[in-house]
């Protein structure tokens, strides 16, 4: 098999790449990495010295590809499916990249800071992180008032980023009840077959998540 994905089924950034792979029915081999295991850590570090997953190894082209957005663009270019996740129109593609970065930096990052503090039992002021999430929710609510997907009528890289970011963010800071557009978009994402598959595969690992008790029953 040409592609090997180095990942963990619980990790939100790994979910982003898995969604892209499932969207286009891309064949790949799985290599689950447990960073607590020295051998696994050493294996990942040999591929990507920063020791962060996911990473895709393309055996056919002798290339290792790190970083979620780069991986998905690489797959779109070299292993395309029926529907490109990065549009061919350059202006639309720029918008997709913007909202992909938005979810990684302004939803994933503050969410992960809150999760890591809980995981490591660190007592700290999280006002800044929660304020960023509140601002992000407000921006998404406004944008999704008349949209099906984040950047138009087609599911894209931006939606691959949105699904795991919002899934985990909602466990640390629930969406405001009055944000109907955000909630509707979230439900649409969660109903997507590729996203459902990723969450189903993550189920056995959910109890490792420090906000496990805040995951809605429908996902357990």
Record keyword descriptors for this entry.
220 residues; alpha+beta; Glutathione S-transferase Yfyf (Class Pi), Chain A, domain 2; four-stranded mixed sheet; 8 helices; 4 strands; 54% helix; globular; Glutathione S-transferase family protein; GST_C; Glutathione_S-Trfase
Give a quick summary of the entry:
The protein is 54% helix and 8% strand. It contains eight helices and four strands, in the order βαβαββαααααα.
Structure description:
Residues 1-83 form the GST N-terminal domain. Residues 89-211 form the GST C-terminal domain. InterPro entries: Glutathione-S-Trfase_C-like, Glutathione-S-Trfase_C_sf, Glutathione_S-Trfase, Glutathione_S-Trfase_N, GST_C, Thioredoxin-like_sf. This is Glutathione S-transferase family protein. This protein has 220 residues and is of the alpha+beta class. The chain has a domain at 90-192: Glutathione S-transferase Yfyf (Class Pi), Chain A, domain 2, CATH 1.20.1050. It has 8 helices and 4 strands. Strands 2-1-3-4 form a 4-stranded mixed β-sheet, covered by helices on one side. Helix 1 (12-23) links the parallel strand 1 and strand 2 (29-32). Helix 1 packs across helix 8. The longest helix is centred in the middle third of the chain and has 30 residues, at 90-119.
């Amino acid at each position: 098999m040409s592609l090997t994905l180095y990942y963990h089924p619980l990790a939100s950034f790994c979910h982003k790449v898995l969604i892209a792979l499932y969207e286009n029915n891309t064949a790949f081999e799985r290599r689950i990495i447990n960073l607590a295991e020295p051998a696994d850590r050493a294996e990942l570090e040999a591929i990507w010295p920063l020791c962060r997953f996911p990473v895709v190894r393309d055996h056919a082209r002798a290339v290792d590809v790190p970083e979620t957005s780069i991986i998905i663009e690489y797959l779109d270019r070299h292993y395309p499916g029926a529907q490109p996740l990065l549009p061919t129109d350059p202006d639309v593609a720029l918008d997709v990249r913007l909202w992909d970065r938005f979810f990684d930096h302004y939803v994933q990052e503050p969410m992960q800071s809150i999760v890591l503090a809980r995981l490591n039992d660190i007592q700290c002021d999280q006002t800044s992180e929660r304020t960023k999430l509140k601002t992000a929710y407000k921006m998404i609510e406004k944008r999704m008032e008349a949209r099906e997907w984040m950047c138009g009528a087609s599911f894209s890289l931006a939606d691959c980023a949105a699904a795991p970011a919002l899934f985990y963010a909602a466990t640390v800071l629930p969406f405001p009840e009055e944000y109907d557009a955000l909630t509707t978009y979230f439900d649409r994402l969660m109903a997507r077959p590729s996203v459902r598959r990723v969450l189903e595969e993550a189920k056995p690992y959910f109890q490792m998540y420090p906000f496990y008790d805040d995951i809605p029953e429908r996902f357990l």
